[in-house]
Amino acid sequence: MRDFEYCRPQSLKEAVTVLAEKGKGAYPLAGGTDILIELKRRRLPASCLVDIKAIPELRGIEREGDALRIGALTTHSELLGSSLIQETVPVIAHAARQMAFPEIRNRGTIGGNICNAYPAADLVPPLIALGSSVLLASASGQREVGVAEFVLGSRQIAILPGEVLVAVKVPVPVSNAACAYARASTRKTGGIAATSAAAYLSADGGVCRQARIVLGAIEAKPRFVAEAAGYLEGTSISEDVAKAAAKMSVSGLSPIVDPRLSVQYRSYMTELMVRQAVLEAWAEVNR
Amino acid sequence: MRYEITVKVNGEDYEAYIPARRTLLDFLRDDLGLRGTKKGCDEGDCGSCVVLLDGTPVNSCMVLAVEVNGREVTTIEGLAKGDELHLVQRAFVEQGAIQCGYCTPGMVLAGKALLDVNPHPTTTEIKEAISGHLCRCTGYGAIVEAIQAAAESMDGGQRASGKTGRSD
Fold it and tell me: Among A101, A109, A124, A260, which has the minimal tally of Cβ within 10 Å of its Cβ?
């Protein structure tokens, strides 16, 4: 690693002030499980790491009306151990459990998973399917951006200089709605997602009213598959309907290159993941 | 840039003046000479550098030493009490769960951390706890059995309360 400066602000105000002062080259440091690899491989031109872990405003999981507010520093272990998450958005706990293994989950955070914007990030597809947004703070104020708009591509996010991701706002699905996430990897644990799919469905009288399908890992950026979602809406979802929607989801994809697995295999697995996520969400809705 | 830190390692306080880029792993091995913690992949994949940070297992290659200022670290050197091995260490010896030994410190600490929060783990829970640890020689069977045996001997220790010293 190249030499860099380190500071540990004690409040959000102090953090955004430091980030604004240090300018380009200053990066927030949360769990460090991604950024340290980038620094070791000399892929990140960081001159200063601003350790945000002492900032109380970035912690906690709370219910705020129809949504959950999940502090940016919430670790993957905390996500899968939270009874509030388990009761309201279990898909987030499920996605957190897919990531790496206990030691990394003890350090890695939800804010980092989003800001690192790795195509295989497991929390991103379900967060987008749920209609989540991120709360950002800077010296000039706060703003809220949808996760779908925030993640621009591989390692690219719509963050402005001097901004810190404070929390993630996740709408809690209403009683006749559910979200499911499925992913394929080369290994049961520790392997990153080769392809993944999240499905959000709502139902009324046995018929699907609203569907959102988001693909992860297969392309540089999470993709909404509107055609397949539209196909599900207004139907009573059966195995065959899910299968047809899954097939639609993979037409016209531009898969990123993954040296481990061929495009054909990943496209095929994407189809299976969509089918699985749709059927799981539908079973949950009708439970 | 260099920074001053104070950190408790295996119950002892250390003060150091270290560059921000020094990982906790390099700090433990090179500055404190605690070479029980192993350096494998150095990218958070293999688990050989796992230590306990305030009791929680973490990959020390993925933590900067400056980040642990004011905190408590336990390495493999901190488990035994004098000549008396920790139950998990003794179980590894008795079950023959060691071959080259490179993964052993991380495996033992992961096992200890698991038993601290879950004294009666299932085989699946044990496998989950060591899922971030690669072993390239013994294989995982004996390691899982050792952690299971340690859990059982903890039970035995509770039943025979007041029992001290080594069983051999």
Answer: A260
**Residue ranges of B 84-103 with Cβ closer than 8 A to chain A:** none
Using one digit for the tens of pLDDT, what is the confidence trace for A194-250?
A: 999 999 999 999 999 999 999 999 999 999 999 999 999 999 999 999 999 999 999
How many CB pairs lie under 8 A apart between chains A and B? 81
Q: Which domains does chain A have, with CATH numbers?
A: 5-51 (3.30.43.10), 60-171 (3.30.465.10), 177-285 (3.30.390.50)
B163 confidence band (pLDDT: 50, 70, 90): very low
Closest CA to A146 of A216, A222, A88, A202: A222
- Is the reported ipTM for this assembly greater than 0.90? yes
- Residue A36 to chain B, least CA–CA distance (Å): 6
Domains of chain B (ranges; CATH) run: 2-78 (3.10.20.30), 87-159 (1.10.150.120)
Strand order of the β-sheet with B56-59 is B12-19, B2-9, B72-74, B50-53, B56-59
Torsion sign over Cα A158, A128, B59, A10: positive
The dihedrals phi and psi of A179, each to the nearest 5 degrees, come to -130, 140
Quickly count: other Cβ atoms within 10 Å of residue B2's Cβ: 14
DSSP secondary structure letter of residue B71: -
Site from B58, B74, B109, B126 to mutate, A interface, most A CB atoms within 10 angstroms: B58
Closest Cα of chain B to A8: distance in Å? Answer: 9
A40-69: pLDDT as tens digits: 999 999 999 999 999 999 999 999 999 999
Test mutation, B48, B67, B134, chain A, max A CBs within 10 A: B67
Nearest Cβ partner of B57 from A8, A102, A188?
Answer: A102
Helix (H, G, I), strand (E, B) or coil at B5: strand
Q: Inspect the interface and report whether the beta carbons of B110 and A103 lie closer than 8 Å.
A: yes
B128 touches A at CB < 8 Å: yes
Position A81, amino acid: G
Q: B113, B88 in Cβ contact below 8 A?
A: no
Nearest in space to A121 (alpha carbons), one of A44, A221, A8, A231: A221
Q: Which residues pair with A168 in a beta bridge?
A: A70, A134
Tens digits of per-residue pLDDT, B64-119? Answer: 999 999 999 999 999 999 999 999 999 999 999 999 999 999 999 999 999 999 99
